[in-house]
Specification:
26% of the residues lie in helices and 25% in strands.
Length: 125
């Protein structure tokens, strides 16, 4: 099976692109922090072709989320992103120095005839 094939699927079918999310609380959400993230986005785009965008939590403007999509090869992208974040000192923006990274992909197709909500309930005896 090709490494790009979805598990249990056609090995010739390309895997759907993933999304990578990185969140952290910033110590200071001012212009210098935004400029550091913008420099990271430029470096990531140049190195991988993946664009990044920056969001802030609706109820807490000090919690930032970087979103990267589409990511075709997350296993290669995530370590490259971490290295570039280190180079651009973006982890230093976080209150605790930690960036939390998550990767999400589209749900696989449900086989016809199966129940997408889990197994059918059993009748009581």
């Amino acid at each position: 099976m090709s490494p790009d094939a979805p598990a249990g699927g056609d090995p010739r079918a390309p895997r759907a692109a993933s999304s990578v999310y990185v969140y952290y609380r910033v110590a200071a959400a001012g212009e210098p922090a935004r400029e550091s993230v913008a420099a990271l986005f430029a470096a990531v785009g140049a190195a991988t072709g993946v664009a990044g965008r920056l969001l802030a939590r609706c109820d807490d403007a000090a919690t930032w989320m970087e979103v990267y999509e589409p990511v075709a090869e997350p296993d290669a992208f995530v370590p490259r992103l971490a290295a570039l974040a280190q180079t651009h000192r973006v982890a230093a923006l976080a209150v605790d120095g930690k960036r939390h990274t998550e990767c999400f992909a589209p749900l696989p197709a449900v086989a016809s005839g199966s129940n997408s909500h889990g197994p059918a309930p059993q009748a009581a005896s």
